[in-house]
Amino acid sequence: MTDYQRAYKQSLADPAGFWGEAAQLVKWDKAPKVVLDDSNIPLYRWFSDGMLNTCYNALDRHVIDGRADQPAVIHESAITGKSSTLTYAQMLEKTARFAGALRMAGVEKGDRVVIYMPMVPEALIAMLACARLGAIHSVVFGGFAPAELAARIDDAKPKVIVSASCGLEPTRIVEYKPMLDESISLATHKPTRCIIFQREQHQVELGPLDIDWKDAMAMAEPAECVSVAATDPLYILYTSGTTGKPKGIVRDNGGHAVALTWSMKNIYNIDAGDMWWSASDVGWVVGHSYIVYAPLFAGATTIVFEGKPVGTPDAGTFWRVIERYGVKGLFTAPTAIRAIRKEDYNGDFIRSADLSKFENLFLAGERLDPDTYHWATKNLGVPVIDNWWQTETGWPIASNLRGLEPMPIKPGSPTVAIPGYDIRVLDELGNELPAGTEGNIAIKLPLPPGTLPTLWGDDQRYIDSYLTVFPGMYASGDGGYLDEDGYVYIMGRTDDVINVAGHRLSTGSLEAVVATHELVAECAVIGVADAIKGQIPKAFVVLKSGAQIDAEELRKQIVALVRKEVGPVAALNEVVVVPGLPKTRSGKVLRKTMRGIADGKHVDIPSTIEDASILDLLRPLLRSES
Ligand code: COA
Ligand code: AMP
């Protein structure tokens, strides 16, 4: 048996043995005796009698182990052209002090703290400071609009919100403070305090609830780590579901620390002292896991990057950063590589950089199409590793395990199931499908450590959304197949979730906003193919009878509405007026059929369709690349 086969087999046959051993990578205040707690199935828990502190594992332990002067965080802003470094000792000092500041603002173990920040080291400090106190952070991506932030505030009910004066996009300053103020006024729940980090590019006037980050730090005493149960929540991260109401994915402390520490070596082949760069945003799960927690658990150096892969200033930015810091592993989304390929097809920028320390490019967040895979492999000369996972799982479900046992790469596949994940491909009735046949991808319970134990405050929604469709299984929401060698192929979502530039969005929530336009009678938002972003949302709208409006004017109004209600990240720019939507005779819009056509799949037109000519009209619009 190979190393991978041995590990995989043991992880399924003896999960307690496998993860019990992995748990030794973590420093516990009280080592767990119970590894897998199955006393309340289908809600499994890991390490339920263990006690630890996540911040201790990310910072303190490395300072104690002699890494005080090693860079922990490098901030590289391609927008300001500035960079700065914080060692492990400096990160610990600032984090402990900010934890003291949060405590002065009333935050204790179990309290929630919403973090709405751009890509600055202070975002990591705020997250780790919450972990230090045993408080639960909920980071909200800066590209979301006030209404989305307000929905998260109402669900998480934070005592304190940590934000910044601004974020920086290549062409504009994103003013966070007015958006924060608006979201607080929209929300029913009110925080008691906001701590605002003032950036030099744009300073803001503070209100009665606000404390300046600097003042908060100056007044605070450093706080020590608070020991928490392994099963206590570390964070809540909201992600798009099929309905408009985002799902609060809960991450616990113990399973998360074990799984992420294990993954950093076994999947990403990163050791203490290595240089690691995850070019994502702290607002997404990739940012949580692989900008913040995993590299710090591993004692590596993590690069926090503010900018875009192209245009700030050019398509060579990524390779220059890799050269400057001797990056060993880069993690980003395929869309970033497609954007670079468009600008630098011949790879001139790549060749002009010294990439001698660069070992692997990891891509996730959306399907890695074979063209992008081949281009990156040819031009970079390093393995290009697809890895498939979700906000729910928090770390890869399938990948090529570069530390445990590198395996041959098959373009179009993120390779094999990671130890702990028992992947099955099922038909609609839950029957297992043979190799090569596409179906619903499910994972047999229990999911491994680090994956979601539940949804925030809503066990039932967790059970209903994920654990009921296929009893005993977690329904991933993705479709795909396994080949004869056990390689996994992910072909796309089976629900109304779309992936725009690696950002997960719910078409349901976009439709809810489009439908509020006064002239719109009904609408469907479908993800259509886009050469750079993979998918983009396109709105098909039917106007109210007698409504008169110029098509371009309507498009502008709807785009503005979606930007205001969901945020610029929704990237909804295409709106087409159609005479009707394809429906069943009972009036149900055939969204699944529309989605299938947009995905280029063969779709059987339901016999219950009311008027097939509408679908024929929509067909070219669904397939168009814009
Ligand atoms: N705060 C405020 N606004 C933001 C934002 C943030 N943190 N992030 C993005 N936006 C805005 C952008 O400015 C843009 O606004 P615009 O319509 O006014 O130009 C809009 O949201 C869409 O942003 P984005 O999807 O990033 O598109 P882009 O055209 O600016 O860049 C790529 C395209 C491909 C270069 C970019 O999406 C990218 O680098 N993606 C990498 C993928 C990634 O990080 N995925 C995370 C999971 S791994
Ligand atoms: P998110 O929760 O934002 O990470 O998005 C998760 C979704 O992105 C998954 O359910 C997939 O649809 C898609 N996804 C993530 N990684 C991959 C991948 N490597 N290949 C195909 N799809 C992916």
Which properties best describe this structure?
single chain; 626 residues; alpha/beta; Rossmann fold; GMP Synthetase, Chain A, domain 3; 7-stranded mixed beta sheet; 5-stranded parallel beta sheet; binds coenzyme A; binds adenosine monophosphate
Give the topology, please.
Blueprint: H1 3-13, H2 15-22, E1 36-37, E2 45-46, E3 51-52, H3 54-67, E4 71-77, E5 83-87, H4 88-104, E6 112-116, H5 121-133, E7 136-139, H6 146-156, E8 160-164, E9 166-169, E10 172-175, H7 176-186, E11 193-197, E12 210-212, H8 213-219, E13 228-229, E14 233-239, E15 247-252, H9 254-266, E16 275-278, H10 285-297, E17 301-306, H11 317-325, E18 329-332, H12 334-343, H13 348-351, E19 360-363, H14 370-380, E20 384-386, E21 398-399, E22 416-417, E23 422-426, E24 439-444, H15 459-467, E25 473-482, E26 488-493, E27 497-500, E28 503-506, H16 507-514, E29 520-530, E30 534-543, H17 551-565, E31 574-577, H18 591-598, H19 612-623
Parallel strand pairs: 4-17, 6-7, 6-8, 8-11, 11-12, 16-17, 16-18, 18-19, 19-20, 30-31
Antiparallel strand pairs: 1-2, 3-13, 4-5, 9-10, 14-15, 21-22, 23-24, 24-25, 25-26, 27-28, 29-30
The structure holds coenzyme A (COA) and adenosine monophosphate.
